[in-house]
């Protein structure tokens, strides 16, 4: 598996320094930079650690950066660290840190208990979508049908739809004439959000997914 270089990026050395060695993590607010270093030093040589703090109070925001000397070390940290850290590659420094923090919160603040709904109110694009969609009388349910021109790989499709919390099952239909799958969530809210995000999504690139609601036997008015 390789990490692709953006065509807009400069030299490979710049890319390696800026985009592939720095990770962004969610940490307890009690952590010091030394605590952060201690937790992540097992994955490689750390150049520096920093904790994001409130500019007014000086208190930790519960977020931090860890920069490694090699991209492979950063990749290993993301892959092997405890999932509670929600580690991802950090955005380049030239992107607004506040914008990145907001995006990070929106994408990672997921409930841990199965069956809970996504915190949609933290995601402005869903709030506006929800208001607009209330005018469309489309029957909704907790179950979705996914259709593709290319065959599905069960594990990859599951991983894609599991990005939305509440996934109960993913069942690829074994039909020689069509490539389809049935997806079911624990709540209609999760199914609505998954349809909104993944209908028309190119997976793999160049192959657009079609996502529609399937009747699940429940009262859709709820």
TrEMBL record:
InterPro entries: Nucleotide-bd_a/b_plait_sf (IPR012677), RBD_domain_sf (IPR035979), RBM45_RRM2 (IPR034206), RBM45_RRM3 (IPR034207), RRM_dom (IPR000504), SLIRP/GR-RBP-like (IPR052462). GO terms for molecular function: RNA binding. It comes from the Eukaryota. Keywords: RNA-binding. Residues 21-95 form the RRM domain. Pfam families: RRM_1. This is RBM45 protein. It comes from Promerops cafer.
